[in-house]
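Field: COMPLEX_INPUT
Field: COMPONENT_COUNT = three
Field: RESIDUE_TOTAL = 437
Field: MODE = joint
Values follow.
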Amino acid sequence: MYALVDGNNFYVSCERIFRPSLNACPVVVLSNNDGCAIARSNEAKALGIAMGAPWFKIQHLQESAGLVALSANFTLYGDISQRMMTIASGLGPSQEVYSIDESFVGLHGVRGDLSKRAHTMRERILQWIGIPTCIGIGATKTLAKLANHIAKTAERKPGVYPLELAQVCDLERLSPATLKDVLQRTDVSEVWGVGRRISAQLKASGIETVWDLRAASTSALRARFGVVMERTVRELQGHACLDLEELPANKKEIACTRSFGQAVVSLAPLIEAVSAFTSRAAEKLRRQHSRAGQVLVFIRTSPFRPGPQYSQSVTLPLLRPSADTSTLVQTAVMGLQLIYQGGFAFAKAGVMLLELSDEDLEQGELAFDQTNDLGAQRVHPQQLMRALDQVNQRHGRGTLTIASSGLGLGPKIWSMRQERLTPRYTTAWADMPVARA
DNA sequence: TCTGGGGTCCTAGGACCC
DNA sequence: TCTGGGGTCCTAGGACCC
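Field: COMPLEX_OUTPUT
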């Protein structure tokens, strides 16, 4: 048995902790550059705002419907997430943190009334952290996900499901008749692993609801859609195919990419952006004690804008795997210079570190010549990187950067929160000396 | 004016090998 | 004329997730 604990409208709920006045308002949290909505309150959803809706298309709702938009503050959300996960882990003996707002909890061996325990846990998270959650319980992870969807929908849209399933839904406790009714009311696209494309194809062949999918032939589905779909159906039938993954595995690739606030034409600002992205990716790389064997750089124009389009990437191998910011930045910039072409309005760039391997110590500090040609003391690159990471961890990202990376030469073209706070709230925040202190 | 930023897994097809 | 039958590795692209 598994539970899925999920924070409702997570980013919006995080913001509401500090701004209770937003509790009844339609609120959206916007992506980088305030480009599009990445979280919506229930009131915002009721206005018909879609996930990922571009801000310029919904902006008019500020006036007409009192919509409030906030720039994302991922540092804050990460911090609140950690506290929420810690409390949620008390629900059972094992936990997989699946995303910033969701965790699966293994319920093996847990005695007593699971629904009651789950309700207690919800209350605790709400009271201690201030985040409303919903909890789904099922025999497999896929069923727990489904139960969570039902719990959320029963709360948000009364009438769709029995009201007693709101907030906490334990599928195992339903009578066969109720289970059938609930699964027949649930669209097949709500199943974990069934996205837009596949749900369209399923519906074309008469599989419209979760009930239909659960009853379908696994072999036929496997033949048509592959093993992933077969696993999904088996999970829906109650046969666990997916285990809890308690230890997050190291990433196999690490990326840092951003869209720009305004289009960029010339090379210099692109070099600066790519250098910064590489620095950030290198930090993530070192945090998981890996080294990269290849660096991929890409630049592209906006597919949404008229004008000549250009999208190109290049992958450069490193002489030997490295986690050194200077090496990685030099390589990335070299790649950028290879693919850059003038005359285009670039909207996005990114860096990916590939071919990751475990950091190995034999290349470490032993072989390093401590003095340079002039006899002066040198610092080993690994020590330098360690110091860099420590300073940045303590004093905030970007406090210390590598001069050769070309950073800090001009205004940033990809913005981060500090430069981007929705003006109204920058002001409001500044007017609150107590809060600032 | 203005459209996110990460990731994973699977499959098909080509190149190459014996 | 007749032209096998596996394997593996790599890459690109599709589909999905939050």
